[in-house]
Amino acid sequence: MTRPVIGIIGNAALINDSYQAQIAGNMNIEAVAQVTGGMPLVVPADPAWVSVPDLLETCDGFLFTGGRPNVHPEEYGEAETPAHGAFDRRRDAVALPLIRALVDRGQPFLGICRGFQEVNVAMGGTLHPEIRDLPGRENHRMPPDGTIEEKFALRHVVTLSEGGPFHKLFGATEVMTNTLHGQGIARAGARVVIDGRAPDETPEAIFIDGAPGFTLSVQWHPEYRAGEDPVSRPLFEAFGEAARAWARGRQPLRMSA
Fold first, then answer.
1. How far apart are CA 192 and CA 207, in angstroms?
2. Tens digits of per-residue pLDDT, 237-253?
3. What is the dihedral of CA 192, 85, 140, 117, to 10 degrees?
4. What are the two backbone dihedrals, phi and then psi, of residue 124, each rounded to the nearest 5 degrees?
5. Could you give the 3-state DSSP secondary structure of residue 184?
6. Phi then psi for 119, rounded to 5 degrees?
7. Which backbone phi and psi does 110 adopt, to 5 degrees?
8. How many Cβ atoms from other residues are within 10 Å of residue 48's Cβ?
9. Residue 40: its pLDDT value, please?
10. Which of 3, 15, 85, 232 is 20 to 30 A from residue 164's alpha carbon, by CA?
11. Taking a C-beta distance cutoff of 8 angstroms, is the pair 198, 179 a contact?
């Protein structure tokens, strides 16, 4: 059988300070190709080049990746401040309506970091501009120095809801994850179920209540060594199963409570 096509939402980049590009990290591409078992297709995140209807017909599933720019606060009804950081309005214009369409159709997607936050905003939720500035919260940002291995090292426990989809998938209610994000969920969007939290109560795992298809999203970065990590591997494998089910007959494979 032909591998399911997995659209990997790209990020705008400037190569050598002058050459504009749309890119996706090798970690994401490798996780899709080797663990999900899909055909990775990097999607340029700009509505001038792609449309939601075309993407829905081209791909069997979507990976909403992490990225340095944040979702613009106007997308959830708040004013821009310096604390919100950099933005990519073109990616917002592609990702947010695409997520809503996928939820409605039952077409599978997996959200990671910024992608996790996009899912919440797409469903009407809001974000904190900087988690570490909140009382009682830890610094969830990437360590500024060190090797890639040190930056993506496991740093905290995520506690999952008993009997929820992540518990069923991982076979445990506590897993160790990395953490490389500055923003996080403030108010959960409509139907967004927070199914896992960090020790400081920061939301780390969500799904969409009542959605007909696979809608799992995580705040951490499971794409790092996805084939070796006991948490990352089942997450990407389950996403791959959902994408194959969609490719076979456009039938949703549900992964929810």
1. 6
2. 999 999 999 999 877 87
3. 20
4. 95, 10
5. strand
6. -60, -45
7. -130, 125
8. 9
9. 98
10. 3
11. yes
Domains of the chain (ranges, CATH numbers) = 5-248 (3.40.50.880)
Give the three-class secondary structure for 142: coil
Quote the pLDDT of residue 256.
56
Q: How far apart are alpha carbons 53 and 69 in whole angstroms?
A: 25
- pLDDT given for residue 108 in this prediction: 98
Question: What pLDDT sits at residue 83?
Answer: 84
Residues of the chain with pLDDT under 50: none
Cα separations in angstroms, 144 against 63, 132, 141, 148, 195 = 26, 15, 8, 11, 29
Is-contact 173 213, C-beta < 8 A? no
- Note the pTM of the prediction, 2 decimals: 0.95
pLDDT digit string, tens, across residues 203-237:
999 999 999 999 999 999 999 999 999 999 999 99
**CA dihedral over 138, 159, 228, 245, signed as positive or negative:** negative
DSSP letter (8 states) at residue 214: B
d(CA 159, CA 12): 33
The DSSP-derived string for 3-52 is PPEEEEE-EEEEETTTEEEEE--HHHHHIIIIII--EEEEEP--TTT--H
Instruction: Please report, for residues 66, 207, 208, the alpha-carbon distance to residue 191 in angstroms, rounded to integers and kept in the order given.
Output: 22, 8, 5
Q: Which two tokens stand for residue 172?
A: 């445990």
Please, are residues 7 and 58 in contact by the beta-carbon 8 Å criterion? yes
Q: What are the structure tokens assigned to 196, written together?
A: 């896992």
